[in-house]
Amino acid sequence: MTGPRRRPGRGGPDGAEGQALALGLSPATALRCADLAGRGWPDPADVEQPQRDFFALYAAARNRAPAFREAVRAFGARRGVQADTRPGDVKRLDRIVEKYSVSLEQPLDLLGGKVVVGSLRHLYEVAFTVPEHFEVVAYRDRVLRPQKSGYRDLQFVVALGGAGGPPHYAELKVLHTLFDQMDGFEHRLYEIRRGLEAKERDRLREPQAGQGWGEEPWGTNFGSPILSPVEQMVLEELGQSSRTLFERTWALVQAQEHPP
């Protein structure tokens, strides 16, 4: 079997054990963290879907969704943890189109699953066994290096085989139950933020109503915001609110791991 299709590499993580210890993980958990980081998997940002035609890719996702759902649930049952796939199985088309319009790349998460655990120790123990049940083609430790919002999980990209044709890549996340709970609430903020960001992109591409193509829409002159002052303020405040919520969630996780 050929290896994953990669984009130009960005290099792997260094010093994962030291970073994990500095983050407050136990020595045993830090070792598992370092072992996963040292497996040599590329970063998800450095791989591409083997299938380059979107319509064929979407059809493959629909066809493989039931088997992926069964595999994720079976994995959770074997590990004694909560595990399932995205409601509706395949990512909504409007979200796919929106993400593609920004990245111009075929999404890796048309199919997505999550495994929810109750401690950082269990997080890495469960993640350690993912390669025993799935073909891992990419991995990112977003506990050590959280997303800009402060959200943390362990992100795998796994290959799903099929009868003929290229494999299909799907996303499998392993995350703490507190982050799973908070993600459900924060997602509402994200939806509003996403709408404002989409509006910002649209205003860059098209003139406002009543304007000709030779006229500048709101704030497209150099140094001015694309959004109105109120919209820009809401966008900034929502971003800060998300970061605050996830930072406080991480503090709860740490307090749970190291009670006074």
Automatic annotation (TrEMBL):
Gene3D superfamilies: Beta Polymerase, domain 2. It comes from the Bacteria. InterPro entries: NT_sf. This is RelA/SpoT domain-containing protein.
